[in-house]
Amino acid sequence: MDIDDLAKRVAAGERRALARAITLVESARPDHRAQAARLLDALKGAGREALRIGLSGTPGVGKSTFIEAFGMFLIERGLKVAVLAVDPSSARSGGSILGDKTRMERLAREANAFIRPSPSQTQLGGVARRTREAVALCEAAGFDVVLIETVGVGQSETMVAGMADLFLLLIAPAGGDELQGVKRGIMEMADLILVNKADGALKETAMRTCADYAGALRLLRKRAQDPDGYPRAMTVSALSYDGLPEAWAAMGALAEWRRAQGYWAANRAEQARRWFEEELRAALLARLENDPRIRGMVADLGDSVAAGETSPGAAADKVLDVLDR
Amino acid sequence: MDIDDLAKRVAAGERRALARAITLVESARPDHRAQAARLLDALKGAGREALRIGLSGTPGVGKSTFIEAFGMFLIERGLKVAVLAVDPSSARSGGSILGDKTRMERLAREANAFIRPSPSQTQLGGVARRTREAVALCEAAGFDVVLIETVGVGQSETMVAGMADLFLLLIAPAGGDELQGVKRGIMEMADLILVNKADGALKETAMRTCADYAGALRLLRKRAQDPDGYPRAMTVSALSYDGLPEAWAAMGALAEWRRAQGYWAANRAEQARRWFEEELRAALLARLENDPRIRGMVADLGDSVAAGETSPGAAADKVLDVLDR
């Protein structure tokens, strides 16, 4: 594969080149990994920066419909929008986020939109690396907004928040009791809580739910990177587009404030450092997998430990000795 | 420290020696780690096997009271009982499991009981290793039952189930709605669900709750290692001891069946293999921490990545190169 040519075409914003580049970073093959590293290095100088928005919400809150409406809203404003899905459950049972584009048909047809389903990797670590690299590729391809979508299942939120500039939590209108269903940890990551479906018969319920969450947010400890009035709860309707301009304005105001205060750059720097540390740990652990001799040794020693012939610690020492040779 | 002498005294069942040995395996100091490995190796031949019981339950279900009652019940039957607490939250804010023995005053005074609070380590991996080693030490010291106690917060249950022969879930009597509060994943690990506080005014509620859980258990897919009638839900009272003989009989019958079918040995073999693999990964990652030169290099490269001068992947490669030299 001609990596320099691919880099040029990604930088020119060619969607097919971007799709191929993401397929490359998703591959675990060592030669693909090397090519992916070269590609990312070649595109590093582009200096383009997108607004990276993390978005979470449990199944049923209307995430796809919201993303389609929000995406169309941004495109109408002349912006280019990429959507990356992160679904740790996709390896099993098809996952909660559909693996095709049919759920956002309208957005998928737009020339200024790029939608990428979740890769079907089992390990969250692998998904994290791939998604971070895909975000970098979308940025290099000139997308203005990169939406990183995930489901409300805990660890994947932390991961997505760890690569986003802003984090949105999408909520369905519901009775006060169900407020407890959102994990406190996820609420604490949110910059904006958007109560969806604020239209028709559900509008009043949505407004009450929004007020409930606004109250709950006031009880959380204020973070340094929050200006007055943030984190915020707002209502939106993916159906009527009501509230989308206000939500977008709130994101813009927050992003601008954070840029001015230096939190934006500090956050990105910290995220890059963590990315490096995770990359390093993953590369170190990959040594146990990549070399067939080591893999065989681990399997044999595992049998010996299982049979009670070797202690787990002594077996580990033996592998380390061979790795050191 | 004279490791051979310590091993001898642990094998003789001396409680103070056991406490010292556990303190040794809890230490992260490299020289202590080496001594701990020697100690565990010296005790490996003892060939003693305890019944390892994992026990989980959210705060408020009466876990301490149950453990004290169950422990006294076992001691009255001539058995030696060790209790190890695993509380991943103990590093922050004191944790949910109290760090002293005062909560089980009666049991703590018994010559045939040994109670050890949770170590205050931040990383679950570190706690896992220490607990597995502490279990092995308690076994070598001749304890018949080792109770490994944890709180209902997800990952720590998986860890405890990964080192236990049986897994108990303790539940408080409650209305049907609250059944949903127990995570499905934790229910799927349980061999026995014990509804506590089945006495006085709560007795009827406890029986209803027990029936609810029995119904829920029937909806779960049957595991190969479950004989007919398991997993089971039963009521117990830590206050009146009602149900304790039945619960203990149910544990014994399950353990016996699994021994006869080969699941017991297969499970222990699989657990030992996983222990080895985790040990190996931890030892490999420790190389990033142990050598001050590498630690400094990681910090410097982290600064460079944060400043945007080096890409995360390139920085990781540099560290790996030095580790290889």
Task: Give me a quick take on this structure.
The structure is a homodimer of 325-residue chains. In chain A, 54% of the residues lie in helices and 12% in strands. With 325 residues, chain A is of the alpha/beta class.
The total of beta strands of chain A comes to 7
Derived structural class of chain A: alpha/beta
Shape of chain A: globular
Query: N-to-C SSE series of chain A?
Result: HHHEHEHEHEHEHEHEHHHH
List the quaternary state of the chains.
Answer: homodimer
Q: Largest sheet of chain A, order of strands side by side?
A: 3-2-4-1-5-6-7
Low-confidence stretches of chain A: 90-96
Q: Note the gap between the termini of chain A.
A: 34 Å
Largest interface: A-B, 39 and 39 residues
